[in-house]
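User: Hi! I'm a student and our assignment asks us to look at how structure tokens line up with a sequence. Could you show me two examples?

Assistant: Happy to help. In each example below, the sequence comes first and the structure tokens follow. Example one:
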Amino acid sequence: MSDHKKNLRTPQSKFSVDVFYIGITKIFLIILKIGMSVITARFLGTAGRGIFYSFFQASGMTNTIFTISIGEGLIYNIGRGKIKREDAFGTVISLAIFFGTLVAGVLFLILPIIQEYLLQNISSDSLMLAYFIAPAIMYEYFANSALRGLKIFSIANKISITSRITVLISSCLALYIYDGSLYHLFLWYWFGLLVNCLIYSFALFYASRFKLSFNVSSIPSTVRYSLRVHPAVLLTELEYRLDIFILLFFLDPAAVGIYSIGVTTAQLVWYASNSVNSIFFPYLSSMEKSNSKNHFSAKVIRFNLLINFLLVLMLCIFGSFLIDFLYGYEFSESYFVLLILAPGLLADSIGRNLVSWLKAEGAPKILSIISITSLVVNIILNLILIPNFGLYGAAISSIITYLLRALALLIVFQGLTNLSFKQIFFWSKTDYEYIGLVFKRAFKKK
């Protein structure tokens, strides 16, 4: 048996099969995400869709800032054995209580300011529901991270699909019963999130062997690691979200609504990258530093780039028809946003893999330097381009920063691994053999 075929019996081969199955999961999640964007666009129109999207961007940004990337710390420390299986549920509950209270308190202070300057079109009652929605989203993030840290990907995949179905059904009922009321949409969305939190709690309790305990000494190490990677995670997330608020400042909710559909359609490609990275980071966190680990990472980058290229090509060909058919002609401009973003999405697919690799290598300072530079460039470009080119300016600034960040991360990766450009991107005969064997294993009867 060749060395390459023997490799399929290693943990790296299990990684490939896990990615395959989570990829199937992501297909269902794509369908559900499209469903949510379609119903909000059809029921709410361009302006209503813009308000809906901005509301969740504000909640998501608050979560990103004040939960200090605890999910990354959970994955890393569970993978390293610093958090035992029996302590996973108790650790998540204790962290969720603390950070959920923190997030709700912060929102209480900043939401009036956001409403005054950016979300004037949303009522105070609707905005108030963010106090409850943000902590629920945060708990999902913590629990899902813990399940992935435990490498229970099958359960995590099933709950991911179930949770999106729950939210989609509750949102559809709210829009239908209350005729497009944003307040009732947010309220029923929160009900759906509560159901999801209960499902995650049961799954994590089961995974923890029905024990509600935690090791106090594991909390500081989890927080320390999270704080180390948080600047890079935070800066990257701010870059992804800030263009929405700059658009709101210079334009109006209708423009944000059109832009959001272009971004949502383009970001369907991210599901491929996220399918890989959901498995990639936990696996890398449990692997020792070695040359084979670096070659494995390069292989992942090659495969991920190919998948993303095919997806971007399909979106560029069928995107116009897809947007007009699903969302209506009032969102036709969204297709041009998609076209502008397309090259940047390919670069970003590489960047996301390299971010996971650097986090697993414990090199958050490098990530932070790259991320803050990319964020500053993105803000400057948005402030220059949006007033002159509107929503297309936001897309142009995104593509430039995606390309620059991917290039910087690639240079760092080459420098730390001594891998050549050819070793990272050029396919070999063993790569093609590997794909065939992975598919064979994935479909093999147990």
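Example two works the same way, sequence first and then tokens:
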Amino acid sequence: MERLTGLDAGFLYMETPTQHMHTLKIAILDPSTVPGGYSFQGVKEVLAERLHLLPPFRRRLVEVPFNLHHPVWIEDPDFDLDFHVRRVGVPAPGGQEELDELVSQIASHQLDRRHPLWELWVVEALEHGSIGFVSKIHHCMADGVKAAELLVNVFDTGPDAIAPAPPARPWRPEAIPSGAQLLGQAIVAMLRALVGVPALVKRTLGGFRAVARRRRSGAVSPPLPFSAPKMAFNTALTPHRWYVSTSLSLEEVKAVKSALGATVNDVVLAACAGALRRYFDARGDPVDRPLIAGVPVSTRTEEKGRLANSVSNLFASVPIDLDDPVARVTAVHEVMKGAKEQLNLLGVEMLADWSELTPPRPYAALNRMYSRWRLADRHRPPINLVISNVPGPPQPLYVGGAKLLSIYSMGPILENIGLNITVWSYLDQMNFGIVACRETMPDLRSLVGYLHDALAELMKAADSRRS
């Protein structure tokens, strides 16, 4: 039995019928090298022999009576692999658009909390004989970096790799703890957390004072929350997700980075700014103010390797108001540098430390009320969108003999923050997964073409700098 951290549990409390807090990983594989050929049963057998490398996949939630404290994980006594692994096909020709439509449907339904919080959809009938894996995982189980670590545990580095060694000790389910046991442990944990409150308050106040001094110094600082313009996707959510995907060249992104003295993440943010500028301009929406993006950053260390979520957030300007692509990169680079300095002044653990004190019942009730009454429609958004960039595997990977061709990720959208762009790199590609509500951005697929246009514009600017 293991208690969720406040950060992990927060993703549970945020969930409502319209605000789904799962993430998706979409893998496309070539099964032509699988010994004996592909079969759905073979997929389940390969997954079964590797479950010990995926510890969260056999754990289910148990809530504390009266929601007095964060829930606990136990090894599910009713675990059934067949419940979690599903088989589905897509209509011809089975290309990226058909797969994206299926992913949109899968993303539009919440996970069942009576079971471990994941599903794996095996997608057949993709073009070129490929097979797709769409894994839906609740955010309380893993952030982007943790998901990448789990992925490495499951995949092999060659097509002929031997099956992983069995676990040193056979897996054993746990009995569901009694209410009295859960209450007793919860009270002890709460008292321990409360002991640290005075020191936490002191650290927090010191961090805010340091940030205020820095902002007064005139240094470039990140934008403040609630200073963002309200855009079409900054509304109350619906349950219906609309997902699209595309890939950009990692080599080209790195070439722009080197030519303009920036980072890969700066170029990603600038490319998103260029694409969104085109998108809003085509709609006739104003592009005279920068947007604000939340940019998740990993705070994971070796000591925190077991944690499901170890992440904080930066606020970054997305300069859709700048016509010059080089100026966009420069603006992003300066703001991101300031945002990182500000995060260090506040303390990278401040969000996680305060989340330990989150009262489960009031916080969950507040989220449900906010969603049900569509309060997001009545005020400006704290930020406009989320843009996340996770470094993926740089070498070819295989599972059960099948070669991984590409992998995409989809993060959650939030009330009033209805656009999420998540990037995972793999080999020589940067794979973009973009999600919004179907009702607020029915033309979301146009953003795919605009991303390619934005990178081409940056490449042209980079070539001019080098010549």
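Here is something you could point out in your write-up. The chain has two domains: 2-162+174-184, 188-390+416-466.
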